[in-house]
């Protein structure tokens, strides 16, 4: 299968490296410089301390436009989606969106493709440089249909080593489950500057963890509040030594995904006239850190 991957960040590089063994992959990057480096030097995948150089991946700058693909995977951050809409809005091939949050769903309604999927990525990935990515944590990619049938997505039936895909029946519940995890863990770790596990092991941080979850669960009207709470805790335990992506963004002076994550929850609180004191406070703290470049 010919697969196009839009986005040269950690997730884009990870997907390009993992899928290139089974498919013809073209990676579309924001800059010509990154595309040139990958075409010249290949893509380096680091796993368990070992590096592997992959040379079969073609890379192009987004300004060149997409080619003839059977599937296009969009891995850019949610706040970059508006910039690539002119490139993908008339595309007729299946599209798979891998963004955090829920706000990107509104973008999908503008697209002409008859088949649109959304997914959540539970792998850990760290971009070291323009053509090097480290697979820092094994997980799964869950995929649901926004429009069209999941039966057309052959990736769900493949057995890609250490890179599984699974089918989800309802995109809304799938995205909300991931949103709750991101909304509780990411802002708190970014502000407190701690690894994920500290949110549970430190009793004072755990009180903040509980208060934020309580407020978010009320805003989103979670149908299984206790199950959701235990799920967020389990993610903290499973990734106890990890530094969240939002904390890494703050540390490196990058724009965060706070608008895609807490921004959506705040808009829901306003729409439903729900209390949002804790969420709003954390949102302002992260935005303040972000505006100072860390």
UniProtKB/TrEMBL annotation:
InterPro entries: 6-PGluconate_DH-like_C_sf, 6PGD_dom2, ApbA, Ketopantoate_reductase, KPA_reductase, KPR_N, NAD(P)-bd_dom_sf
Annotated keywords: NADP, Oxidoreductase, Pantothenate biosynthesis
SUPFAM superfamilies: 6-phosphogluconate dehydrogenase C-terminal domain-like (SSF48179), NAD(P)-binding Rossmann-fold domains (SSF51735)
Pathways per UniProt: Cofactor biosynthesis; (R)-pantothenate biosynthesis; (R)-pantoate from 3-methyl-2-oxobutanoate: step 2/2
Residues of the Ketopantoate reductase C-terminal domain: 174-290
Keyword presence, Oxidoreductase: yes
Pfam families: ApbA (PF02558), ApbA_C (PF08546)
NCBIfam families per record: apbA_panE, PRK06522.2-4
PANTHER family: 2-DEHYDROPANTOATE 2-REDUCTASE (PTHR43765:SF2), 2-DEHYDROPANTOATE 2-REDUCTASE-RELATED (PTHR43765)
Similarity remark: Belongs to the ketopantoate reductase family.
Protein task: Catalyzes the NADPH-dependent reduction of ketopantoate into pantoic acid.
Protein name: 2-dehydropantoate 2-reductase
Biological source species: Peribacillus butanolivorans
Taxonomic lineage from the root: Bacteria, Bacillati, Bacillota, Bacilli, Bacillales
């Amino acid at each position: 299968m010919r697969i196009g991957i839009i986005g040269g960040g950690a997730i884009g590089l990870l997907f390009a490296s993992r899928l290139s063994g089974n498919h013809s992959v073209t990676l579309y990057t924001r800059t010509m410089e990154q595309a040139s480096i990958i075409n010249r030097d290949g893509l380096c995948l680091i796993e368990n301390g070992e590096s592997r150089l992959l040379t079969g991946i073609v890379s192009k700058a987004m300004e060149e436009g997409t080619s003839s693909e059977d599937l296009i995977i969009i891995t850019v951050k949610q706040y970059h989606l508006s910039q690539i809409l002119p490139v993908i809005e008339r595309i007729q091939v299946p599209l798979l969106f891998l963004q955090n949050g829920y706000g990107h769903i509104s973008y999908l309604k503008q697209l002409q493709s008859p088949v649109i999927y959304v997914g959540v990525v539970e792998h850990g990935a760290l971009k070291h440089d323009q053509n090097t990515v480290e697979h820092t944590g094994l997980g799964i990619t869950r995929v649901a249909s926004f429009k069209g049938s999941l039966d057309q997505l052959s990736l769900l039936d493949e057995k890609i080593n250490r890179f599984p895909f699974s089918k989800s029946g309802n995109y809304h519940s799938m995205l909300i489950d991931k949103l709750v995890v991101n909304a509780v863990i990411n802002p708190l770790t970014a502000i407190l500057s701690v690894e994920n596990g500290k949110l549970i092991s430190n009793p004072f941080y755990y009180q903040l963890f509980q208060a934020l979850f309580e407020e978010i669960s009320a805003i989103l009207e979670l149908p299984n509040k206790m199950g959701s709470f235990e799920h967020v805790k389990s993610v903290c335990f499973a990734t106890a030594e990890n530094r969240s992506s939002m904390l890494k963004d703050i540390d490196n002076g990058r724009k965060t995904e706070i608008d895609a994550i807490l921004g959506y929850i705040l808009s829901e609180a306003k729409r439903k006239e729900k209390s949002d004191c804790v969420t709003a406070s954390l949102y302002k703290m992260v935005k303040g850190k972000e505006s100072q470049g860390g």
